[in-house]
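Sharing a chain and its predicted structure for anyone who wants a worked example. Both blocks are below, sequence first, tokens second.
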Amino acid sequence: MESSPRGFDFTAAVRALCRDMIARLPELAHIDLPRVAIGVVQTRRDVTHGMYAALTPLRFEGGRTEGAVRGRRYRVQPLRDRAGQDYLYLLTFYLPRFLNTSLEEKLSTVLHELWHIGPAFDGDLRRHSGRCYAHGRSRKEYDAQMDRLAQRWLAQDPPLHLYDFLERSFEELHAEFGGVAGDRWPTPKLIPA
């Protein structure tokens, strides 16, 4: 388990989990995880409904650095790592909400967000045909596909230490480690080009 002076290091634990999922699932092999910022946001209320996680693309369609929104040209405010390299995606988890779901739901949620990363890994989303380009024609079908992917990953017998933190609720992790901490990133803004 990842711990730091601030408590359980959620960001490091999720990064290790994602690294293993990417290595074991060929469908995710296109993801260059060091170019994905991972962070947390505290939810205002501890309720079971609402977002658990989100993937924010940091480029426009086709990986372009500029794009049009309602007839105006914009670029996305860059997020950079310590070496100054641009991240292409921001993966955000909403705590404590995310941690207060079942293990299966947590694994499916992580895969759900990773699956959104476009096959070209150019900062754009994976685009499905039809009106709902993010999830395809059926959100239910999309979620079922992520459940199957999670089961395939688990069937490969990954080391328990990579995901045992997901067996605990936010309160349980907080009690065990004296807190739950993670990287926080500013919400990227659209900047007029």
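Comments welcome. The first strand starts at residue 3 and ends at 4.
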